[in-house]
Write a structure and sequence with these properties.
The complex is a heterodimer of chains A (291) and B (165).
Chain A: E1 7-9, H1 14-24, E2 28-31, H2 37-42, E3 50-53, E4 63-66, E5 70-74, H3 79-84, H4 86-91, H5 93-101, H6 105-110, H7 113-119, H8 127-132, E6 136-140, E7 145-149, E8 154-156, E9 159-160, E10 167-174, E11 180-187, E12 198-207, E13 210-219, E14 226-227, H9 229-235, H10 242-255, H11 266-290
Parallel strand pairs in A: 1-3, 2-3
Antiparallel strand pairs in A: 4-5, 5-10, 6-7, 6-10, 8-9, 11-12, 12-13, 13-14
Helix pairs in contact in A: 9-10, 10-11
Chain B: E1 3-9, E2 12-18, H1 24-31, E3 50-53, E4 56-59, E5 72-74, H2 88-96, H3 105-116, H4 124-130, H5 142-164
Parallel strand pairs in B: 1-5
Antiparallel strand pairs in B: 1-2, 3-4, 3-5
Classes of the chains: A alpha+beta (291), B alpha+beta (165).
Bound molecules: flavin-adenine dinucleotide and FE2/S2 (inorganic) cluster (2 copies).
Chain lengths: 291, 165
Amino acid sequence: MRLPKFEYFEPETLEEALRLLAEWRERVCVLAGGTDVLVKMRNGRLKPGAVIALERISSLNGIGFDLRKGLTIGAGAKLSDVTSHPDILRYYPAIARAARVMANVQVRNMGTIGGNLCNAAPSAENAPPLMALGAVVTAASLEEERRITLDDFFRGPGLTAMKPEEIMTSIFVPTPPANSGASYQRISARCGVDIAAVSVGAMIMIEDTVCREVRIALGAVAPVPMRALSAEAFLKEKVWSEEFLREAARISADESRPISDVRASLEFRKQMVAVMTQRALEEAYGRAIKR
Amino acid sequence: MKHHINFKVNGDDYSLAVDPWRTLNEVIREDLNLTGTKLGCGTGDCGACTVLLDGRSVSSCLTLAVSVNGKSVMTVEGLAPSGEELHPIQEALIQTGGIQCGFCTAGMEMSALNLLNQTLSPSETEIKSALSGNLCRCTGYNQIVEAISMAADKMRDNAAEKEEQ
Ligand SMILES: Cc1cc2nc3c(=O)[nH]c(=O)nc-3n(C[C@H](O)[C@H](O)[C@H](O)COP(=O)(O)OP(=O)(O)OC[C@H]3O[C@@H](n4cnc5c(N)ncnc54)[C@H](O)[C@@H]3O)c2cc1C
Ligand code: FES
Ligand code: FES
């Protein structure tokens, strides 16, 4: 089946893209890597009057790291660039892993991290580790530039806190605190190539065996990627132990709100939330005490 | 409105006017008559349409032709430009029996090339994950994995020979 007809723009600056967006409003669709957009157009779920391709706006595509501040990933950075970036591999292995285990080589060579977040699938692969690490995204419109924490970003399947006239420019992730570690775990029916049935991102900071900071984010088990706030509250200020770890994993499963669908049943998802939460916390702990 | 694009395919320059809604897969197959690249699912799942774009493997079914303006594409036809002497990946696939109906083959070869451009000593796991976006309904994959490992050895030997000279 052919794609529906549309007009096409390929601006080279953000300003130009934002002007086009303001002009065309809801009849336009922003295109990054196209791995969600073209699939939707092909199966008739999306029929835009015009498409604004962001790829040539070079200011959106970079990745920069400053040890004192943190990591800034351009919304248009390709997933394959995220997985191979030396600073991301070294300081943010959980982010590198999420981008590496998703989809397949071709999709990672085309798809962008910003596209993954803006598409706002409940299973959006990059969301849990970024949420666990306290990421903040920047959205620009002709009027202003504003920052939105990832915790406030997702509003429902396919819905975000961004306005139609905004473009996501970058994702900022603070430098992880000393003595902290993070992890990303996922499970799906056929290892990597298909969408995650359950995924968990976790970050913990350990001081003298006490969990001073804990952040757990769950993917694909609610209408939006969500924090496991009760599990976090339970672990916080506790001395690290196997028993508390298992209890935190159980609480995390309890507060998840999965549905049954083609990928997994509700009951299986709940059990897997516990397993993935435990694995993520264990790996994060191992990394925290090494650093 | 048609857009004018200039791009390279297998080293040759092309200049054409394309409708923006046409995919790179359509333009390669229908306008350039390079039908080695296949169309399977059209939604990024099967890998039959894989080509290299500026050296990286992409699905041509999910790439708009207008977006390749100024870029360089390599299709399966570029693997054996003379049409006679085959690429080591192709020879190995024949030797191991990694080709049956052949529908997946062009895509498999481009994904294999994408991998071997990065490393000539891939592990079995690396080969398998490099092929995770390419489906084959016939062979059961083992012969394909074996072929890529064989091709890597051959290409490593060739590279070493060249160095000696
Ligand atoms: C075969 C296949 C397998 C896949 N597997 C996975 C998987 O395992 N896990 C997973 O999470 N996803 C998966 N996906 C989905 C998809 O590849 C990812 O979500 C990808 O990151 C989307 O990025 P993109 O650049 O291609 O987005 P696009 O398709 O270009 O855009 C996606 C959405 O975001 C909007 N958008 C993009 N960039 C911006 C911006 N800067 N500002 C505002 N809006 C923007 C677009 O308008 C659109 O609504 C898969 C897709 C395919 C085809
Ligand atoms: S035809 Fe492009 S991936 Fe199947
Ligand atoms: S040889 Fe038939 S699909 Fe692979």
